[in-house]
Amino acid sequence: MTNEPSSDHLEALTQQLDAQLQRIQQAAQTVLDATQKAEAIIQQAKQADPAAPLSAAAVADNATAQQVETKTAEPQQAALDLDAVDAPIVLYTDGACSGNPGPGGWGVHGRFGREVRNQQGWSPDTTNNRMEMLAAIHGLEVLPEGTAVELVTDSQYVKNGITKWIHGWKRKGWKKSDGKPVLNMDLWKRLDAASAQRKVKWSWIKGHAGHEGNEMADQLAVNAISQGRSGALEADPAG
After folding, report:
1. Are 45 and 62 in contact (CB under 8 A)?
2. Residue 55 sits in which domain range?
3. Alpha carbon 110 to chain centroid distance?
4. Per-residue model confidence as pLDDT tens digits over 86-95
5. Catalytic site includes residue 218
6. pLDDT at 8 over 90
7. What's the whole-number mean pLDDT along residues 76-83?
8. Dihedral sign from CA coordinates of 204, 208, 210, 214
9. 210: annotated active-site residue
């Protein structure tokens, strides 16, 4: 007879694997973003005066101008009439964290038929799991109660937590089998309420595997960290 691992043990292993994977993905994305940004700044400076040397001050001035443009260029999105949406609503959610714990961001790429709506937020001091959860929470909370939606996440922590582990936690008064309080209890309660008030189909996909919606959500989450650090995005109070 073999002993099956407990749900708490599986939860801990899942969190560790998610955290390790996110650290690797975040490091790779940070290097890529920095390289692309540097190339863009250098190219702009060359176009302004191809014969002039690229001084540190010129590069800094271009970077500052780009930050200001990012802060003010985001257009106001028109209200979306869900009654007119004639296709399934799909939300792709993702979280990112630089350090874990550390500065983090969350992103939601929503598809409402032919319409697309994006959301993002950040926190100066958080964890990857909290960002993953807040992405799902914010994505659901903007929808009217009773809305049918598929939520696609690359976090096993979120998917297993809301569909499996949460039932045992609630029976035990939001405690794990060892008697300790559930981590991120505030967000689990909020996600539980948001999910219960809507008809949610929970789906999991592998992150950074070429899924367009997931890649868009990841980009929103990573960019949210940069925007937050530059002052272009206010911190999420629940982060």
Report:
1. yes
2. 7-71
3. 12
4. 789 999 999 9
5. yes
6. no
7. 65
8. positive
9. no
Residue 114's CB is within 10 A of a number of other CB atoms, namely: 8
* Catalytic status, residue 125: no
Output the six-digit token pair for 67: 């930050």
* Contact (Cβ atoms closer than 8 angstroms) between residue 106 and residue 94: yes
Q: Is 61 a known active-site residue?
A: no
Task: From 39, 71, 103, give the residue that closes a domain.
Answer: 71
**Is 218 marked as binding a ligand?**
yes
Within its chain, how far is the Cα of 177 from the centroid? 29
Q: Do 91 and 183 fall into the same domain? A: yes
Please give the pLDDT value at position 83. Answer: 72
Q: Is 132 annotated as a binding residue?
A: yes
Whether residues 219 and 153 share a domain: the answer is yes
Annotated catalytic residue within 18, 94, 138, 161: 94
Options 132, 138, 213, 228, the catalytic residue: 132
Asked if the model's pLDDT at residue 1 lies above 90, the reply is no
Q: In whole numbers, what is the pLDDT of the chain averaged over residues?
A: 81
- Among 218, 228, 236, 239, the active-site one is 218
Alpha-carbon distance of 71 to 3, in angstroms, equals 55
Has residue 80 been placed in a domain? Answer: no
Q: What is the largest CA-CA distance in the chain?
A: 77
Q: Do 63 and 97 fall within a single domain?
A: no
Q: Do both 197 and 144 map to the same domain?
A: yes
Give all strands of the β-sheet with 199-204 in edge-to-edge order. Answer: 115-126, 102-112, 89-97, 148-153, 199-204
Among the options 11, 110, 121, 154, which is catalytic?
Answer: 154
Is 222 in the same domain as 107? yes
61 annotated to a ligand binding site: no
Catalytic option among 95, 110, 139, 228:
95
Tokens 């990112």, residue located: 96
